[in-house]
Design a protein that fits this description.
oxidoreductase; 13% strand; NAD(P)_OxRdtase_dom_sf; 10 helices; eight-stranded parallel β-sheet; TIM Barrel; AKR5G; 10 strands; alpha/beta
Length: 280
């Protein structure tokens, strides 16, 4: 059972990945972003998740450098994720996209590099590039994002290296049972983006009742549900008190009844695009 903010899951290649991290989707470049990353590191986070399309890799890199300097930690203490955007997919363009991301972040390597979306006709060539990147040591782990079961099955027909992670939309209204089961079978770590459903779940009566019994916030209940489901999660916040609150989920445990009641909220409802119907 996950007991500490710095607890990790071991990916199938032996790399250790923190269960909880900071997401920075839609956080613009600037002091707020830098301070959020620094605050996360100061308060014990060891995982930071960004992407090329977020347009904020430079600020994330600055926050990492300043956060490490202030805490005395080393680069090796952090787990940094970025993603290749759709317009850059393809073999050579993916190799170039990684170099741009590394330069902006000010890093020599990533801990995890993901294909952001399964662009038809391109994601297999993109994956070949990720395999080359992995073999070069410029990414300690490689994976995918927003891949359904059929995308993974198609990819695995030709892949030399199995993805270590699949990062997808996951929250109590979208529990992705089939995909989670497939990832478990394949040894692919399941990771959640938008775990709080962009705030839509914070007034849910079932979640509020469970939160009241545990003396926790609804956000903390959802994040704990993620962890007890074996799901890596990366809640986004720029406010230090929220960053701290989101990490305060290791001093309690949801009951089996809590877990089933939360899972029963599933409606297969998304706040983001369906990967099968996304206009790439």
């Amino acid at each position: 059972m996950t007991r500490h903010l710095q607890d990790t899951t071991t990916l199938h290649n032996g790399v250790k990945m923190p269960w909880l991290g900071l997401g920075v989707f839609k956080v613009e470049e600037g002091p707020e972003l830098v301070e959020a990353v620094k605050s996360a590191i100061k308060n014990g986070y060891r995982s930071i998740d960004t992407a090329a399309v977020y347009g904020n890799e430079e600020g994330v890199g600055q926050g990492i450098r300043e956060g490490l300097a202030e805490t005395g930690l080393s680069r090796e203490d952090l787990f940094v994720t970025s993603k290749v955007w759709n317009a850059d997919q393809g073999y050579e363009s993916t190799l170039q996209a990684l170099e741009v991301s590394l330069r902006k972040l000010g890093l020599d390597y990533l801990d995890l590099y993901l294909i952001h979306w399964p662009v038809q006709g391109k994601y297999k060539d993109t994956w070949r590039a990720l395999e080359a990147i992995y073999e070069s040591g410029k990414a300690r782990s490689i994976g995918v994002s927003n891949f359904h079961v059929h995308h993974l099955q198609d990819l695995l027909q030709d892949a030399k290296i199995k993805p270590m992670v699949d990062q997808v939309e996951f929250h109590p209204c979208l529990t992705q049972e089939e995909l989670r089961a497939y990832c478990r079978e394949q040894g692919i770590q399941f990771e959640a983006w938008s775990p709080l459903m962009q705030g839509e779940l914070l007034d849910n009566e079932v979640l509020r009742a469970i939160a009241g019994r545990h003396g926790k916030s609804v956000a903390q209940i959802i994040l704990r549900w993620d962890l007890q489901n074996g799901v890596v999660t990366i809640p986004k916040s720029t406010k230090e008190h929220r960053i701290i609150e989101n990490a305060s989920v290791f001093d309690f445990e949801l009951t089996a009844d809590d877990m089933s009641r939360i899972s029963a909220l599933n409606e297969n409802r998304r706040v983001g695009p369906d990967p099968d119907n996304f206009d790439f």
